[in-house]
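Task: fold both queries, return tokens.
Query 1:
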Amino acid sequence: MLLRLAYLAVTNTFAALRLLPMGDRDKDVEILALRHQITILERQLGVGARARFAPEDRAFLAALLAPLPRDVLRRLRLLVRPDTVMRWHRDLVQRRHARACVPKRRGRPPTVRSIRALVLRLIRENPSWGYRRVHGELTMLGIKVAPSTVWEILKQEGIDPAPERASTTWADFLRSQAEALLACVFIETVTLDGQRQYILAVIGHATRRVRVLGITAHPTANWVA
């Protein structure tokens, strides 16, 4: 079709160049002769019969006649109706845009690596979460991803997307929240002069480091606060 269309474009370009030196009288005579030939062709085809156009003929006529205003197009003597020419032009434009909009890669686009890494991090830091909980956390962070995508990421990594976790154990809670947990305790001691003192100390679950916050003989609530 492209080769035939190129041939039509070249031949009609030379035909247009041939019309340049012709006078208006000669052009009017040729137009009347062509219109009369169309009338003869329509009479031979009969009522209801239609001339058959090849795809390249349709494309060429649509590109040639579509720029004309609708009222001018209706005054032309054509083998087809002006609305048919406009439909050919719309189909030509649609096919061109359809070819330009075809994605280079078929199917669903791959998940962004940063989202994949974030999903695995949330599961690693919160082993009791299922894919639904991870999807909810991503939604609160403003990340739009389908629950099925989270499920596929976990499945590909060999992680159960929906494990049986009716309740979270205390050990699991401590492991997941160790960075933010501190255990505090009062240590009672007696000084050399026999005075009783209370030591307030805390220990970090993640680092196991003990910090002494203060010593007092009267551990009231205000002092602890």
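Query 1 returned. Query 2:
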Amino acid sequence: MTAKKLNITKPDKEFTPGKGFTKADWDAVDSPEATDEQLAQARPFAEVFPDLAESIRRSRGRPALENPKKQVTLRLDSDVIARFRAGGPGWQSRINDILRKAAGLQK
């Protein structure tokens, strides 16, 4: 995939108006290129801040479910699927609810 498809742009080398900051803001920023010596001394974030890196790693995503759903392949008649889909979004959950009742697994 190209950078254009991902909507990634390279940083501007010169000030360009209309990007949410002023020329004064642009001039106030001093971000020189890193030297070879600085790059040689660079260490990974997780190595420099292990506790913070671990807390970020742990806090990502949803908490694990006690009883997660399993994906399966199931062949159903097309008219059955059409009837449930006609009910709008949530049709798969409605099928799950009906199967739970049929199996005697009421919530």
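Both queries returned. Flag for query 2: The radius of gyration is 27 Å.
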